[in-house]
Design goal:
Helix content: 40-55%
Distance between the termini: 18 Å
Order of helices and strands: EHHEEH
Radius of gyration: 10 Å
Number of domains: 1
Number of strands: 3
Strand content: 15-25%
Structural class: alpha+beta
Strand order of the largest sheet: 1-3-2
Length: 57
């Protein structure tokens, strides 16, 4: 998977994290400016795989 590819939105991010993090927590992180970097694409909020992997380290 290329580093610029998106995982998807908050639901897909929760699945990527193995279901260990509730979607509600991802929304809370976003509102507080925490968690992996998010990108606004139109009306959607998306997360890049490379950003999520870097945040996990």
């Amino acid at each position: 998977m290329a580093s610029s590819e998106f995982i998807g939105g908050p639901q897909e991010l929760a699945e990527y994290l193995g279901g260990m993090v509730p979607v509600r927590s991802i929304y809370a992180w976003r509102s507080r400016g925490e968690g992996p970097r998010a990108y606004r694409v139109g009306r959607r909020v998306l997360f890049k795989k490379a950003d999520v992997d870097a945040w996990l380290e």
